[in-house]
Amino acid sequence: MQQELSYPTDYNSEVRASTAELYKSVSKIIPEVEWPFHAPLIHEIKKLKKEKNATILTHNYQTPEIFHCVSDIVGDSLKLAYEARDSDADTIIVCGVHFMAETAKILSPNKKVLIPDMRAGCSLADSITAEDIRLLKQKYPGVPVVTYVNTSAEVKAETDVCCTSGNAKLVVESLNSDKVIFLPDEFLAQNIANQTDVKIISWKGRCEVHERFTAKEILAYKEQHENIVVLAHPECSPEVIEVSDFTGSTAGMNNYVKDNQPEKVIMVTECSMSDNVAIENPNVEFVRPCNLCPHMKRITLKKIYDALRFDQHEVTVNNQIIDKARLSIDRMLEIGRQK
Questions:
Q1: DSSP secondary-structure letter at 24?
Q2: Across the chain, which distance is largest between two alpha carbons, in Å?
Q3: Is there a single domain that holds both residue 27 and residue 103?
């Protein structure tokens, strides 16, 4: 039987009342004329979450009407996975890309994990396979493999230990090896190599959002805006990092703005993150060099609504892969606890 893809559109008094406070929180980002199109879907999504005991986990790169208006938990990919594990919900909706939903499934194998669009991929995760890692292990026998969490479950299962952009250097140096295979982000590997004496064997993967930023572009922004603070993600090139004022993960950049309240800032990352952080820091002026992630933007309110209505796009991972992949994530956490 074909599913009926109709959507709520009635911006009636009940919808207005239930979403009024939400709109106040995003009114500086979402124009008032747009709200009647978002509000009915937001209202119905919130009702469906209660009916189905579902939790929505949302990555920092989602648009404000998703990030601020229907989400229960927000953050970077690993935070979302661990929040999924600790949630009492029966169903987890991951508003992010596919590897994030897989990681949530790895840490919550007994929960139903849905993603609103199965096509929401990642250039980094797609750049390497489990077979690639097996070949690298043959080429460099005995060399430990560190893999960025922005990878598939199968890749994590072939990995000695995972890392995030925020703890990559700590993980690399904790292995007490003079040589480490670091996968798959070429720029992140180069940036870590510049901070450590460990020899880094890297891969040619890149984030299609962060690789587009250039040092020339960032320097031009600095010339145009006096006293601007440039915050860059470590998936950017070493040349971009060199001309930036702070380098950190999405969580690190978010915390920098909250803690330091710079007068004016550029976040050199996916541009929806600037919108979301701006809402929480109204006294900071954001200059937006906007590079959109086409995969993140596949996630919409309509698709979240459909995922909840029809329990569709369930993410599954083989149990053997789950067991092996979870080891690499747990080893990363153990390294953090030892420090």
A1: H
A2: 66
A3: yes
Whether the ω angle into residue 64 lies within 30 degrees of 0, i.e. cis, is no
Asked if 30 and 117 sit in the same domain, the reply is: yes
* Residues 183, 201: Cα–Cα separation, whole Å: 8
- 284-319 pLDDT, tens digit per residue, is 999 988 789 999 999 999 999 999 999 999 999 999
Q: Specify the CATH number for the domain of residue 154.
A: 3.40.50.10800
Specify the DSSP class assigned to residue 22.
H
Q: What is the DSSP letter of 291?
A: B
pTM listed for this prediction: 0.94
Q: For residue range 1-45, what is the model confidence (pLDDT) as tens digits?
A: 456 678 999 999 999 999 999 999 999 999 999 999 999 999 999
Helix axes 98-107, 319-338, angle to 10 degrees: 80
Q: How far apart are CA 179 and CA 114, in angstroms?
A: 38
How many Å apart are CA 100 and CA 19, to the nearest integer?
Answer: 28
Contact (Cβ atoms closer than 8 angstroms) between residue 125 and residue 320: no
What is the chain's percent helix, strand, coil content, to nearest 5? 50, 15, 35
Tell me how far apart the alpha carbons of residues 145 and 142 are, in angstroms, rounded to a whole number: 9
**136 falls within a domain:** yes
Number of domains composing the chain: 3
| Radius of gyration in angstroms for the set of CA atoms belonging to the chain, rounded to a whole number | 21
Domain extent, residue 147, equals 127-206
Handedness of CA 4, 43, 112, 155 (dihedral sign): positive
Give the whole-angstrom CA distance, residue 201 versus residue 184: 10
Distance CA 91, CA 83 (A): 13
Tokens at 62, concatenated: 């989602």
